[in-house]
Amino acid sequence: LPVFAGWVLSYDKPILLVLEDQCHLERAVRYLIRAGYDWIVGYLKGGVEGFYNAGFPTEHMELLTVHQLKAKIDRGEELTILDDRGQDEWDQGHIKGAKHIYVGHIPERMSDIPKDKPVAMFCNVGHRAGLGASILLREGCREVYNVLGSMTAWKAAGYPITTE
């Protein structure tokens, strides 16, 4: 939360926290206030599960394994692979043909990302890719995938990477 809040939150909009366990509430509020986010209007009791159980409408992102991603690449499917890792991670190796935009820069680089074509989000293990995918969905991208395990799983599967 302390690292990612600045990438996705706005100081001029109310914040509703979604926490699986209320014991994390005080710490989350403290982190946000220290970062200058003080318009915290409440929290969702019961977390996401409570939201589901109440019958409210939800959205979700699709998940891909690295094997499914590799199959899409091999079939030549139209797909943007968006790697949102840091520059040093990218330089150590990435999927050939992937586009690199650091997760914190995605909101300001939306014009570089096709909203009407599939995008597979990729990072080191999937956490930042999930955040990046959420940003893309919020910004109107229609078909967004979070690649489970991302680079860690890609390497474990023995799939090729490049440093070019």
Automatic annotation (TrEMBL):
InterPro entries: GlpE_sulfurtransferase, Rhodanese-like_dom, Rhodanese-like_dom_sf. Residues 12-60, 75-163 form the Rhodanese domain. It holds the Pfam family Rhodanese. SUPFAM superfamilies: Rhodanese/Cell cycle control phosphatase (SSF52821). This is Rhodanese domain-containing protein. It comes from marine sediment metagenome.
